[in-house]
Amino acid sequence: MGDRYLFKAKRLDNGEWVTGQYVKGLDTYDKEVHLIFEPTTIFYSSGETDGWSEIDPSTICQCTGLRDKNGNLIWENDIVAYWDTYSTESGLAEADCDGQVVWDDETMSFQVTNRLSAESYEVLDECSVIGNIIDSPELMGGTE
């Protein structure tokens, strides 16, 4: 469950995803900066990096701490495919669905959009991550 406190975001300098601890602060000019610290990238002897990457705050995704049925970590803004069961007038029905993982302030939990029945977080351990809304908005019917 330690993964639950990880964040990922895209670096400002090259657009690559980075994963680690998120920090928001001020630089020496009192400008707000958003950083991710990746302890595995510290190369003091080469001087290449100190483990900090400045990131685009619009791409920040928090880890849910859960893994999909294929063992992949599930992140906020991931798009997941799942099999949904819901009630109809004639009984239960099932559908193959896609949804986006989002944080819900009301339930204080990660939820899946497009879920036909209540308690959408229940599908997270049975789903498959198929992408994320930042890299592949078309998977949810958005535009590129």
Attribute tags:
single chain; 144 residues; six-stranded antiparallel β-sheet; four-stranded antiparallel β-sheet; 10 strands; 0% helix; 47% strand
Question: Can you characterise this structure?
Answer:
The model has no long low-confidence stretch (mean pLDDT 85). Strands 4-3-2-1-5-6 form a 6-stranded antiparallel β-sheet, with no helix packed on it. A 4-stranded antiparallel β-sheet has the order 9-8-7-10, with no helix packed on it. Helix content is 0%, strand content 47%. By secondary structure, it is mainly β. Strand 2 and strand 3 form a beta hairpin. The two termini are 33 Å apart.
What structural category do the secondary elements indicate? mainly beta
Helicity range of the residues?
Answer: under 10%
State the distance separating the first and last CA atoms: 33 Å
Largest sheet, spatial ordering of strands: 4-3-2-1-5-6
Order of helices and strands: EEEEEEEEEE
Mean pLDDT: 85
Range of strand content: over 45%
Q: Which stretches are low in confidence, meaning pLDDT under 50 for 5 or more residues running?
A: none
Largest sheet: 6 strands, antiparallel
Shape: elongated
As a whole number of angstroms, the C-alpha radius of gyration is 18 Å
In terms of quaternary structure, the protein is single chain
The number of helical runs is 0
Query: How many beta-strand segments?
Result: 10
